[in-house]
Amino acid sequence: MYEVFIGGWSNSKSVIRKNRTKPDVAEVDTPDILSADEMRGFWIRWDDGVISVGKEGESSAFLTYADPEPFGIGYFGVCTGWGASGEWLIEAICVGGHDRYVNPSAPPPPSGVTDIGDFCWCDASGGVIPPGAVEGGKDDESLYVGRAYHEGALLPGKVKPGHAVCYVAWGGGEHGKTEYQVLCGCNPVWVPTTGNNIPHNAIPAGETEDGEPLYVGRVQHEDTVTIGKVQPSHSVCYIPYGGAEVAFPEYEIMVQQN
């Protein structure tokens, strides 16, 4: 874990501490940075293993730490110390950005429906599951809808937190990727289909190395519900399972609710 202290040690310094051990990994003198007479604002950000701390209204940080061995942040907590009071504003930033898709190969949508909305794919790694992640499968633990790059393709697959990877199917094999994206912030539904019958509101989630759109599918297999990729030109849903890429002509596909 990382700890950030602002105005500690009798309001004399601020530090960043890793794994509750000393010495502190970053420290700076900040005399009287806090005040009993006025509310003062601060921000804390982290990205790619760099933690930065700054004052409200100032873009530059007064305290930073670049971890040479960073780890994913999945949880955080905030508190004041020694009877003080404070207010907290938590901003959820989706690093992966938003994708707005229109299904180019599907039939025209019903009247009043022009596309299937915004979807947030959040960057993650090492088994981290961002807030609002979409759960789509189950084996000995919950599986989440993810995607990862492999051999020039962006492939939908299953994020398995216990293995700290996103598994994708490609070229007959199952491939575990430690860096991936997780679908967040939406409530899709799953509908049964077969072959290349892609519903108009199916959610595109990637593409092959040749540029063919891929969709998110899932199947029941070996007492699991496993997430994989639907490739329309092959008329199947491929799932990564047991080290192999397994094809199913009957499957469920993820769609946006109307």
Automatic annotation (TrEMBL):
A GO BP annotation: methylation
According to the UniProt entry, its GO molecular function terms are:
methyltransferase activity
Keyword Methyltransferase among UniProt keywords: yes
What residues does the Farnesoic acid O-methyl transferase domain cover? 1-91
Does the keyword field hold Methyltransferase? Answer: yes
- Fetch the Pfam families from UniProt: DM9 (PF11901), Methyltransf_FA (PF12248)
Q: Which PANTHER family match?
A: AGAP009604-PA (PTHR31649), FARNESOIC ACID O-METHYL TRANSFERASE DOMAIN-CONTAINING PROTEIN (PTHR31649:SF1)
Alphabetical UniProt keywords: Methyltransferase, Transferase
Q: Which residues form the signal peptide?
A: none
Mind telling me what this protein is named?
Farnesoic acid o-methyltransferase-like isoform 1 protein
